[in-house]
């Protein structure tokens, strides 16, 4: 264990206990963001040596989990785990009104700290990312304890420690405000006002900013000798609610950002119940956040289901709900764009949001640690978008929707949402055009729904078009769909369309290595042939490649939601995918030959 780089690996595993940490992330820590080409293999060697040095029992705790490793650790087997447990118990006691017990638990948590975190770990990157997070977490916990002590009217007792901390962090306005209040209540009004004056000068000189509204309010209250608390506020009296003293010491807002959604379908009740159960009762190891990913093809109803669940579990996310549309693969939003909004929504003044991305992430984790928030990230295209937006450990929940499986999102519970069955499709169509209209033409309605392939987006568009044209019979619309030369032209209305969803899936299609078969070419060929299904052996013959190469290309199409998963060795295309594949083939033929293709065979 004496090798410096093995200590870095061990530290990375411990700080991410019970969560999968990727080999790439470990390599960034070991080689300070400049790993050599052989980094992955070397990291595996370091892990092997760690297992050997730890002995049989302890080494069994290091598990290999794609895309890296996971260290199993009980809550009380590490200082960080014990620290988190004390913070959680402090929050529970505060909510029950036991401020004495809450303060004692916070003191126990802080007593676990020893000097600078990670000081003996030879990794600048690890100290920068995880060390700053730990330091921010400690400061936040100290601020929570000061709030509790001030609520218990122990202002004189906390002055010496606050003086020391404010000297070390003179621009941390939350600490300055607490010290001003403690000094004022201890009969030292002139010192409190002088501290405000000096802090204002520092803020203006170093940041070019005036004090925050919260600090100005403390100053105003002291000037008027008015120590009446707001709810919540740094001027809290013991009569204030315990939850406010613990959870929102700096007047943090409770965001409520969930968009509205249409009524849920009974066909989705099972999926809704499973997600709801996981998000409300799921227990996670220390240091992990309960995370659910709803995945499936575009237009299948992922966002609607996720938002239904989010609204259902709002009562358990007592500190609010954050929501962001990450834009999918077409217009992806990075965490760099989302974090400033989330931090502002959580009460951080805009001019105090750090410029450095790693500092923003650390602050976000600190603000969310120990709270019960629901974070909904809609339309994610990659795990890289999601990971920096995972809230700090504690009672928060994360709900993600994505067309991708996001298999490398550590510890996530995945729900694959498929097309609606016939009953669910009829229910959705009936909810739009009316059950009587569907009941009058049941066979025609089934013909429309067959073309829509159980895709809720397609069914909603079909229903909307029928609703806009009450003079159309369902049979007439069914004939338009089945006879249309370009089916997808019929399935668009207003700003809704099936084609843009399929375009997005095609744009995100994973390409193969140069020696392999391009999945896009396979898809185009299936469209030219008008194929309803294909086997890997048939695709191998079509492209003159090995069956393994053909299977890889077909699996890439499944991953991109452009082909159904194989059943009895055959990959299938529904009516919408066939129409889209035909369009792609026609576009290729026009580009190459200047005229539409002739269907093969």
Structure explained in plain terms:
The protein has helices at 4-15, 23-30, 39-59, 79-95, 99-111, 124-151, 155-168, 173-185, 189-207, 213-223, 242-247, 269-281, 302-312, 335-345, 357-368, 383-386, 422-433, 435-440, 442-452, 456-468, 474-483, 487-490, 498-507, 519-529, 536-543, 547-559, 575-593, and strands at 21-22, 62-65, 68-71, 290-295, 321-325, 374-380, 397-402, 413-416, 492-493, 496-497, 533-535, 570-572. It is an alpha/beta fold. The protein has a five-stranded parallel sheet, sandwiched between helices. The chain has a three-stranded antiparallel sheet with strand order 1-3-2. It has a two-stranded antiparallel ribbon with strand order 9-10. A hairpin with a 2-residue loop joins strand 9 and strand 10 (496-497). Helix 1 packs across helix 2 (23-30) and helix 4 packs antiparallel against helix 5. The longest helix is centred in the first third of the chain and has 28 residues, at 124-151. The termini are far apart. The relative contact order is 0.07. Residues 226-251 and 597-601 have low confidence and may be disordered.
